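I'd like us to work through together how a protein chain folds, taking it slowly. To get us started, please write out a protein record for me. Label the sequence line and the structure token line clearly, so we can match residues to local backbone shapes. Once you have written the record down, we can walk along the chain together.
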Amino acid sequence: MTHTIDDFQTRIAWVADALIPSDARFEMPSAMDAGMLERLLPRALKERDDMAPSFFKALSRLPEARPDDPLDAIRALGADDFYVISFLIAGAYFLDEAVTKRLRYPGQEALYETPDYDEIMEAIERVQSRGQVYLDVPDGLESL
């Protein structure tokens, strides 16, 4: 059975806000206030669809209602499940432009570099054309 965000809305809400609560001092929204369910998590799951099955499987092992200690409940899943849940929630959170603006984080920028293969091959060909180069070490100089 293929799961969707709609199947886990209650769990995602408490998990997201346990991992990323609001911070009034720095005017940072919680994960849910930033739009986790509506915008951010769907986008993150679309970009990392390879992680979706593991994410939903891990969520299915959590209680529906928020436990007394939500972080302990998430940690109790084990390292792999904690990783996939926190990776997707945090990654989704940083997709919000208001969040990254408040943090003064411009985000990842794609760098498109086209190497000059002719220049690389020219350097390699010079080395290859000279053949093997070595020097005999005179006796008595090996210990230097």
